[in-house]
Amino acid sequence: MKNLILASTSTIYGSKYLEYLLPELKIFFKNVNKITFVPYARPSGISYEAYTKIVSTAFKTIDIEVNSIHNCKDKQHAIENAEGIFVGGGNTFVLVKELYDQKLMGILKASIDKGIPYLGTSAGSNIAGQTMQTTNDMPIVYPPSYATLGFIPFNINAHYLDPDPTSKHKGETRETRLKEFHTYNSIPVLGLREGSWLEVKENKIILKGGLSARWFQKGKLPIEIGSDKIVNYKS
Length: 235
What we know:
- There is one protein chain.
- By secondary structure, this protein is of the alpha/beta class.
- It has helices at 22-28, 48-60, 75-80, 92-101, 105-113, 123-126, 174-184, and strands spanning 3-7, 34-38, 65-68, 84-87, 118-121, 155-157, 189-191, 197-201, 204-208, 213-216, 223-225.
- The protein is 26% helix and 19% strand.
- A hairpin with a 6-residue loop joins strand 10 (213-216) and strand 11.
- The chain is globular.
- The two termini are 23 Å apart.
- This is Dipeptidase PepE.
């Protein structure tokens, strides 16, 4: 039974790392003493060790230990036997390439399908969709496939930004880019705004965080999905 939290971001303005999510995570990981952390997306310029320290500091406040997979000799075993899993943000291309290179993509999917609680933020949420093709990240490496974990039957666009009507910038908006995606693809996309997350319990997906999300489908006008509403991906 799938049990996931998929957040747009790890940090919202004016708060510390994961601070806004910690009350939710304390409940979500209530039976977990140690998290297996996947740091492969790591933000630019930060080492795995430094990234793990940031994550460990946050989880320490809810009495959960963090074990980063980059320190594990048998990484597949670490995923298979994890109490809980956290895949952090950074560059989605780098994350997906590393998961394939380490032969962890299938192992990760199988473990979450068994019910191991999974937290994703940013890139870690992007890979929960059908493909990684609606990420905002630069393609700085070339993964062997765009296919990802498929825990949810649509894609996520994390850090979704609405067009600014006062801006003088005439380049593409996020909405324009997602419409371009739908020129060649039929997978629905959910634009998750900062501070929002999805609560996934098996096939029930609920939007959380107090903000609406933007729902995109090929050939249809975008619509808003309200907070605490079920994401009806079959419509």
